[in-house]
Amino acid sequence: MGALLHDDEESPFIAVNEEGRSPYVLICEHASRLLPRRLGTLGLSAPELQSHIAWDIGAENVARLLSRLMDAPLLLQRYSRLAYDCNRPPESPGAIPEVSELTAIPGNRKLAAEDRLARAREIYRPFHDGVSLVLDRRAAGCRPSLIVSIHSFTPVYKGKPRSVELGILHDRDTALSAKLIKSFPNIDARLNEPYGPKDGVLHTLNMHGFARGLQHAMIEIRNDLVATERGQDEWAQRLSVPLIQAATI
User: Fold this and answer.
1) Which of 22, 39, 52, 222 lies in disulfide reach of 72, CB 3.0 to 4.6 Å?
2) Whole-Å CA distances, 184 to 62, 165, 178, 179, 244
3) pTM for this entry
4) Distance of alpha carbon 152 from alpha carbon 169, whole angstroms
5) What average pLDDT does the structure give for the chain?
6) What is the pLDDT of residue 1?
7) Neighbouring residues of 20: CB distance < 8 A, sequence distance ≥ 6
8) Distance between alpha carbon 52 and the CA centroid of its chain, in Å?
9) Which 8-state DSSP code applies to residue 213?
10) Cα 116 to Cα 172: distance, rounded to the nearest angstrom
11) Cβ atoms of 51 and 166 closer than 8 Å
12) CB atoms < 10 A from the CB of 133, how many?
């Protein structure tokens, strides 16, 4: 394969409200289930491509609502994680998964090195270069930045139900997550659940937050709670106040 994306296809990186006044920079790596046209359906059915294996259901809309409520920049990644998971480095087997949860991904099997390179070059690199440029511009303007990535997770994983409603994730830096976890007394909120550093899900935050010395955290919402517009609005409202308070403590 030569180029992966046609000239008329969307950039992997989209910045929303880049000049927002909030100290937060919101990131949503799994915003979309869109696939590059050259990849077709990756051998999957329509229901499979609409399921959580292809994207984080409800995450983009929650992130967009939060962006408006807090006047925060939002950085979106526009292609399905089945094409390339931008929360994984190129050397990770999960970057281009051959199996997602229990579903085999035929179009990701036995890829040639040049095909893997094309996906990293045209999806992963432009997205992370875009994030870096936004943070560089904020630093050049002496603007503080805290990074929060917005995700959702399936209520049943490999046949096992999950009761946790909200996860606040961190790796080597705990400052922001320690503030946030205290803000949800009536919600089943847990630190580093249903995922944690051992699952390799903190790549984006380590790359752009920890490396720069910026406070950061990942927010994971159970996707049945944000599958509707009403749920998305409720959770955006519910998250906005603790986030704003945590930035000022």
Assistant:
1) 22
2) 17, 10, 12, 10, 14
3) 0.97
4) 12
5) 96
6) 56
7) 67, 70, 71, 72, 73
8) 13
9) T
10) 29
11) no
12) 14
Decide if pLDDT at 2 tops 80: no
CA 9 – CA 3 distance, rounded (Å): 12
Distance, in Å, from the CA atom of 197 to the CA atom of 7, rounded to the nearest integer, reads 37
15 bridge partner residues: 75
| Mean pLDDT, range 163-167, rounded to an integer | 97
Which pair of structure tokens corresponds to residue 87? 């929360």
Q: How many CA atoms, within 13 angstroms, populate the side-chain half-sphere of residue 95? A: 20
Distance CA(64)–CA(83), nearest Å, equals 23
Q: Strand 103-104 and strand 99-100: pairing?
A: antiparallel
Q: What does the block give as tokens for 28?
A: 């949503």
CA distance 212 to 204: 12
Neighbours of 82 (CB within 10 A): 24
Question: Which residue in the block uniquely carries the two structure tokens 């910045």?
Answer: 15
Q: Identify residue 227 by its one-letter amino acid code.
A: A
pLDDT value at residue 248: 79
- Cβ atoms of 138 and 25 within 8 Å: the answer is yes
- Quick one: tokens of 140? 């050049």
CA atoms 157, 29, 83, 132: torsion sign: negative
pLDDT tens string 95-143: 999 999 999 999 999 999 999 999 999 999 999 999 999 999 999 999 9
- Please report, for residues 3, 133, 221, 240, the alpha-carbon distance to residue 28 in angstroms, rounded to integers and kept in the order given: 25, 16, 13, 16
